[in-house]
Design brief:
Layout lengths: L9 E7 L9 H11 L6 H14 L5 H15 L5 H15 L5 H12 L3 E9 H8 L6 E9 L5 E6 L1 H4 L2 H12 L1 E10 L5 H6 L2 E5 L3 H10 L2 E6 L2 E4 L1
Parallel strand pairs: 1-2, 1-5, 2-3, 5-6, 6-7
Antiparallel strand pairs: 3-4, 7-8
Helix pairs in contact: 1-4, 2-3, 4-6
Amino acid sequence: MTNKISTKKQKVAVFDIDGTIFRSSLLIEMTEALIQEGLFPEAAGTIYAKAYENWANRKDSYDKYIYAVIVAYEKYIVTVKEKDFQRVAKKVLAFHHKRVYRFTRDLVKDLKKKNYYLLAISHSPRDLVKLFVKGLGFDKVYGRLYEVDKKGQFTGQTLHADLIADKSKILKRALEKENLSLKGSIGVGDSEGDISLMKTVERPICFNPNSKLYREAKKHGWEIVVERKDVIYKL
């Protein structure tokens, strides 16, 4: 008797990481650490200092702040050795790995028990994201992938930038490669960059959404969850 290969597709849950599971941004924390370690010059911080001040004072958006950090990171990651990146990344995660939201942490655990395929998508460096979610049970990680040359140094080039820019494209790619189903699918995100993902999954969860995602969620009747201090609100 021959064993039949199962063709049943697995349910999928997609999570943004920064601001959704991690209570900060991996990219920001890594950039700050690279400055502190002397691998980035102090000038790197001046690139996003004003954007941070405007966001902190609620004069401008968080997205503009993050974009400025990306600019600084990609400008100064050039010639940094991959081994030095890994060394600093381990320090960052040793300090920050427990800084997670309760709602999404518990949701990940629950979905893992229900045999969901867990997919993490982030605009932070992929290697950093992989280390962060390692103990959470994620099956696949997508993040910004930076080219490394034969000398083991970063070139500053971002690989597959068009793919990482659209989370719905990443999900469709995963559906094909991993034999996954959109039936019962879940997506969790916190900003307008997650809107295309929210429109693709069956159960969109807008967690601590910014104003643009909040307005879109209200228009479509998507689930909105806010975690503030030790209270979780469902709006």
